[in-house]
Amino acid sequence: MSLSRKEFLKLTGKAILAAGAVDSGIFLTGCNTAKGGNKLEYKIKQLNLVHTWTIARNSSDAKNNVFVKYEKDGTIGIGEAAPNIRYNETPESTIETIEKAQPIFDKFDPWNFVDLGYAILDVTKEQTAAKCAMDIAVMDWVTTKLGVPLYKYLGLDKTQTPITSFSIGIDTPEVMQKKIREAEKYPILKIKVGKENDEQIMKSVRDVTDKTLRVDANEGWKTKEEALEKIKWLEKMNVEFIEQPMPSDMLEETRWLRDRVNIPIVADEAVKGAADIPKLAQAYDGINIKLMKSGGLQEALRMIWMARSLGMKIMLGCMIESSCAITAAAHISPLVDWADLDGNLLIANDPFKGATVENGKMILPEAPGLGIKGEF
Ligand code: MG
Q: How far is CA 71 from CA 79, 105, 328, in A?
């Protein structure tokens, strides 16, 4: 029986779901060797979570991320995509997008990575995780070839990396308290709220810790009155900022809310790329940049300059990602106010080693490129 590509991907998708908890499972690989000596490979790897991960929208035990290897002139660059269903992305759509972009690598010299990035953007459109994987791989290739760590190439000071928060997913009060005790070495915690039991969650957290808390509602509060009441209550609980209190399209309501509260409001789901930022400046105090939303490092840097010019605070966040994408983000973290780069700390079978965390502070590797070690 011969299958169309679409049917094949559909079946493979089901196999991925059926596979369950397989350590470092690799499910689907592809390779394209093109003229000009460009080679672009991809692999889906299952990342198993230490704890079931629950936020206001959904719950999961494992994530299937797509890894990309770009090879030319004997040097390789590695990148990662963490597809997110919130943005209509799946591992299958990510692979389809990477395959669509593969011919573009024949037309551009990777040293011309700015034009290459825009050309890839033309075909990847809204599939920003796929774009991100290719962008990270190209920037890793360029800086590895130059023999310098990415942060150094960008002119950044590695001692200026911020302290990252550690995220505690929604769970029963007992399990959340257990997670908080396990997170002892992280000085700042990020708490997910946005369901019916916010008060119970916050109270059980405050019963066991007096650390600084960042609170993320993941669009969970549906009216401005509800959001105002919750934030007024959170103001009394040593909360540093509140992330995405209401759905991303409620810009007017968020502006109304900001006029009435005393802690900063940070946009996450409401912002993907630089073009989204100017309109958000009227309703939010800061933005949460994630490489998976921006489509990689190059657009993330454009977002940083844009947000700074508008006087906004900048947070650098992540999805559930391995040390590949987390390390890429860590390299630009000296430019931001707040980091939430803990995606790799939440998985049990990280295929890579890269940036580490010491007493909450991000420590960058010294090897050229991303400086990650591990098997593609
Ligand atoms: Mg968030």
A: 12, 11, 18
